[in-house]
Specification:
82% of the residues lie in helices and 0% in strands. By secondary structure, the protein is mainly α. The longest helix has 50 residues.
């Protein structure tokens, strides 16, 4: 009866855990949308109130559009960078329009000159910048021909005012941080690495060497998770630049540095995991009987992979815990590393003394042991520092 109850509880936990995680993610996304909406309204109304009194015909649409663009930038640093690009592009476009109107007037020839200048000049600019310069120049061409100085001054001033308003709102009203996203990406990467190591260990224990190429495919697929985690960490680090929320939470910046360190460790581990999977895949399809791994080695190596899986998954928790008074994750990581190192020394001695069967597979033994040793070295180094 007790066993059945435990089984039901575990089944319920297995089913409800993903649902709860999805609900938390949905609530987080929904809250982000609400914050972006409120900030957009504040920036638009603030810009309209500031610009409308002095802009011609009370039409500050350019300023409002610029403010909305800046306030919805992914980070405060990104909003400043976009503002500089936008203001610079509009100034360049208006100057080109003024020069073309003076020389050629609002004609097809002026439009052609504007397009050529925007495309050929400034090769270091991005395609979006060149397009913005050209579009601004073409739209302003007719206006600048009738009132050059007025129509050159007001659009630039509107753009600058809208940019300042958008940046101010984005920086002062709950500026975005992406530390939770980077934490989640790191944990997903560590879980994927640990799961693959655990699967390989279980497969070796059951003599399922035919899964070697499947493990190799999974190891190669980890590149996507590595790229995603690196992007999330870079975005989180960028979100801390010029962020007013970091003044009240000084520990956030330290968290970002530890995330970067944890990612470097996981990236090195991923290389070793791929090496292990590649060796197992090649060994499984090696036609030489003498090259096959011995049963004793497989049993011991499967145990090592299980221990390594626990150590890899625990390494991220150790890095991300801010309060070092809770030492249980560190203790679990230390225990896993020490047990695996003990096993590693024992199996290395057995290989060196020739106690393992299948002596023709010495190169396979060496490759697997080397990859495992490097994996443990990365974990041990990360733990000590």
């Amino acid at each position: 009866m007790q066993d059945s109850t435990i089984f039901v509880e575990r089944t319920a936990l297995t089913v409800t855990a993903p649902v709860r995680a999805l609900a938390r993610r949905f609530r987080g996304k929904r809250a982000d949308h609400v914050v972006h909406g409120v900030k957009t309204v504040i920036a638009a109304l603030l810009t309209w109130g500031v610009v409308a009194p002095w802009v011609p015909q009370n039409q500050p649409y350019l300023a409002v559009a610029t403010a909305v663009l800046m306030v919805n930038a992914s980070t405060v640093y990104e909003s400043v960078r976009k503002a500089a690009q936008s203001v610079g592009a509009r100034i360049a476009g208006l100057i080109i329009a003024l020069a073309a109107a003076r020389l050629l007037g609002p004609t097809a020839g002026a439009v052609t000159v504007i397009a050529l200048i925007a495309v050929l000049a400034g090769p270091r600019r991005t395609a979006d910048d060149r397009l913005q310069i050209a579009s601004t120049a073409v739209i302003a061409l007719t206006a600048t021909a009738t009132d050059p100085m007025g129509h050159l001054f007001y659009p630039v001033l509107q753009t600058l005012t809208g940019a300042v308003a958008g940046i101010a709102v984005n920086a002062l009203v709950l500026p975005p941080l992406y530390l939770n996203d980077s934490d989640s990406a790191l944990r997903d990467l560590a879980d994927a690495l640990g799961s693959l190591l655990h699967d390989m260990g279980s497969g070796l224990a059951r003599r399922q060497l035919s899964k070697g190429y499947g493990w190799l495919h999974q190891a190669r697929a980890l590149d996507k998770r590595l790229t995603h985690a690196e992007q999330q960490i870079q975005q989180a680090d960028e979100s801390l630049r010029w962020n007013t929320r970091c003044v009240a939470h000084t520990r956030r910046r330290n968290t970002a540095h530890t995330e970067s360190d944890a990612f470097k460790v996981l990236r090195g581990i991923a290389i070793q995991v791929r090496g292990i999977a590649r060796t197992l895949a090649d060994s499984a399809h090696d036609g030489h009987a003498d090259h096959h791994l011995g049963q004793q080695f497989l049993d011991r190596y499967s145990q090592a992979l299980h221990l390594a899986a626990a150590a890899v998954q625990g390494s991220v928790e150790t890095h991300l815990i801010a309060d070092t008074s809770d030492a249980s994750p560190r203790e679990r990581l230390r225990t896993a590393i020490e047990e695996t190192l003990t096993w590693h020394h024992a199996i290395t001695d057995m290989v060196g003394l020739g106690r393992l069967t299948k002596p023709g597979a010495w190169h396979v033994y060496g490759s697997l042991m080397t990859d495992l040793e490097r994996l443990l070295s990365d974990l041990d180094h990360a733990h000590k520092h």
